[in-house]
Amino acid sequence: MHAATPPPADLADVIGPIERAVVADRVTGLARVLAQLEAAGAFAADLFPAASADHYQRRLIHRDPHDRFVVVGMTWEPGQASALHDHAGLWGAEIVVRGTMEETAFRLLDRDVEGRYKFRCQGEHLAPPSCVGILIPPLEYHSFRNVGTKTAHTVHVYGGAFEFCRAFSVDDAGWWRAARVDLSYDA
Ligand SMILES: [Fe+2]
């Protein structure tokens, strides 16, 4: 993990409303709060890490001192994508700030004795700026991709420290295998 870039002076204006929403009712009010912040231009470009040709970039914008939530900014070059992953049982709220993303949602159907998983794709949806998504376990499986022609910025709020997740890869027969991913920040 690298040292974080110093936060902007008005970061409290971003974190305050998010914290109040989480304290009031965890994820329920977050969609509205994130949309209001985005509409007000609160998610300035300097909140986000620089783009990289290697993979999408993650920056820790804020970690709640009581580990009730974290706020993460992500930067995606065109075509960059996450694997199908879970959220380690945490709720999540995500908003697209710049660019055009596509989210693919999956429903977990089965797990066999060998530890393989069966998912059903629930379909893709286009996520332009201001589009908010909420994931509440057990509906916590999805993937994200920048399908636009420009660099994309997204903000993610998770209901805990979110230090690891599971990423899934699929075989020719349609079974998925999980691998633990220890989550770190790029910048
Ligand atoms: Fe996710």
Describe the overall structure.
The protein is mainly beta and 187 residues long. 13% of the residues lie in helices and 41% in strands. The chain has two helices and eleven strands; from the N terminus they run ααβββββββββββ. The strands form three sheets. The protein has a five-stranded antiparallel beta sheet with strand order 1-2-9-4-7, covered by helices on one side. A three-stranded antiparallel beta sheet has the order 3-10-11, with no helix packed on it. It has a three-stranded antiparallel beta sheet with strand order 6-5-8, with no helix packed on it. Strand 5 (101-111) and strand 6 (117-127) form a beta hairpin. Helix 1 (11-25) packs antiparallel against helix 2. It starts with 10 loop residues before the first helix and ends in a 5-residue tail after the last strand. It binds fe (ii) ion. Residues 85, 87, 92, 142 line the site of fe (ii) ion (FE2).
Task: Set out the fold topology.
Blueprint: H1 11-25, H2 30-39, E1 57-63, E2 70-76, E3 84-85, E4 92-98, E5 101-111, E6 117-127, E7 132-135, E8 141-146, E9 152-158, E10 164-170, E11 176-182
Antiparallel strand pairs: 1-2, 2-9, 3-10, 4-7, 4-9, 5-6, 5-8, 10-11
Helix pairs in contact: 1-2
